[in-house]
Amino acid sequence: MLIKISYIQGIKGDIKTDFSGVLFHEMIHVWQWNGKGQAPGGLIEGIANFVRFKADYVPNGWVKPGEGQRWDEGYSVTARFLDYCNGLKQGFVAELNKKMRDGYSDNFFSQLLGKTVDQLWKDYKAKFGN
Ligand SMILES: [Zn+2]
Question: Per UniProt, what is one Pfam family of this protein (predicted)?
Answer without folding.
Answer: BSP
